[in-house]
Write a structure and sequence with these properties.
The radius of gyration is 19 Å and the shape is globular. The two termini are 23 Å apart. It has a 6-stranded mixed β-sheet with strand order 2-1-3-5-6-4, sandwiched between helices. The chain has a 6-stranded parallel β-sheet with strand order 9-8-7-10-11-12, with helices on both faces. Helices cover 40% and strands 19% of the residues. It has helices at 22-33, 49-58, 83-88, 107-119, 134-145, 157-170, 183-189, 235-242, 250-266, 272-285; strands at 8-14, 37-43, 63-66, 80-81, 93-97, 100-104, 126-130, 149-153, 176-179, 195-198, 223-226, 246-248. The chain is built from 10 helices and 12 strands. The chain is an alpha/beta fold. The protein binds NADP nicotinamide-adenine-dinucleotide phosphate. NADP nicotinamide-adenine-dinucleotide phosphate (NAP) is lined by residues 107, 131-136, 154-156, 159, 199-202, 204, 227-229, 250, 253-254, 257.
Length: 286
């Protein structure tokens, strides 16, 4: 990679940031397209977020990703924020257009685009979302936008109720339900469901034996989307496939959300396969 005087800078703001796979994925895409950009990690402490955003303008950084814990707070520092980001109160991509900082989020669209690339259109499908945190909100709003009926099950029931309420305010009320996160309720909640999405951290390293729903509830014809990407194949994914369900891993969403950010900054079609291979290669080395 040749960094020259007019090389344009992209990056990611987060705390912590050392674990981020985004630099690997984006620099692989930059190399593959042979364009004059570089993508770097920036360790930004919460108390420095405002100054860091000002730095995007001051140093004419072309754009950045924003990750934990800044996705919500960064909204207050931007000039424009997309409708979808305002709805879910989350920004993961900032584009610098001549000093005007525009915020958007590619988490939900990345989830949807990756799922539809693999499984075809999901319009109107009946979905069970497990979890009610930040990623659940992004996924739920993306699915609600295409007319899906959504049931939410979360360890802390009040958060599920709150998320269903937010969805009901924006989309057709009556399409969003809450159920308990236990075997009996999930078994009933799963009847007629086409798609299950795990947005909890259950199953994430080091809790690799964790599974968010009893495995015996998984069945053929079910689509299972696992957001956790560390490990690359969680117990949920293995159990789902063992029982004849089709499963996608969190790696897909990670790559597609990155690809959509990349397209916003460069205006070029992202080399998705290259980005995915770059992340897989890192996973194989670790
Ligand atoms: P978050 O906002 O902190 O939400 C965490 C969710 O997990 C909450 O619903 C929480 O329930 C639930 N949870 C945590 N521990 C649990 C347990 N032991 N049993 C049952 N539920 C539990 O986190 P997030 O940002 O949504 O991220 C969640 C997961 O998705 C993480 O593993 C993250 O790496 C992954 N993720 C992947 C991608 C991707 O691109 N693939 C993108 C975003 C996130 P309570 O409300 O009860 O606390």
């Amino acid at each position: 990679m040749n960094v020259l005087g007019n090389t344009r800078v992209l990056g990611v703001f987060g705390h912590p940031i050392a674990h981020s796979l985004s630099p690997v994925m984006h620099n692989a895409a930059i190399r593959a397209l042979n364009i004059d950009f570089i993508y770097v990690p920036f360790h930004v402490m919460p108390e420095n977020l405002g100054k860091a955003v000002e730095g995007i303008r001051a140093m004419e950084i072309a754009g950045v990703n924003v990750t934990i814990p800044h996705k919500e707070h960064v909204i207050g520092y931007l000039d424009e924020v997309s409708r979808y980001s305002m709805q879910i109160q989350s920004v993961n991509t900032i584009v610098n257009v001549d000093g005007c900082l525009r915020g958007d989020t590619t988490d939900g669209p990345g989830f949807l685009r990756s799922a539809e690339a693999e499984w075809g259109k999901l319009n109107g499908c009946k979905t069970l979302i497990i979890g009610a945190g930040g990623s659940a909100k992004a996924v739920a709003f993306a699915l609600a936008e295409i007319g899906c009926e959504i049931t939410i099950a979360n360890r802390t029931r009040e958060r599920a109720v709150e998320l269903a309420g937010c969805l009901g305010q924006v989309f057709e009320a009556g399409k969003f339900r809450v159920t308990e996160l236990n075997g009996q309720a999930l078994s009933e909640g799963l009847s007629g469901v086409d798609l299950v999405v795990n947005t909890t951290s259950v199953g994430m390293h080091p809790d690799v034996d964790g599974i968010p729903i009893p495995p015996e509830l998984l069945r053929p014809n079910l689509l299972v989307y696992e957001l956790v990407y560390n490990p690359a194949r969680t117990r949920l994914v293995t159990e789902a496939e063992r029982r004849g369900a089709r499963a996608l891993t969190g790696l897909k969403m990670l790559v597609y959300q990155g690809a959509l950010s990349f397209e916003m900054w460069t205006g070029l079609e992202a080399p998705i396969d290259v980005m995915e291979q770059a992340i897989q290669a890192i996973g194989n080395r670790q």
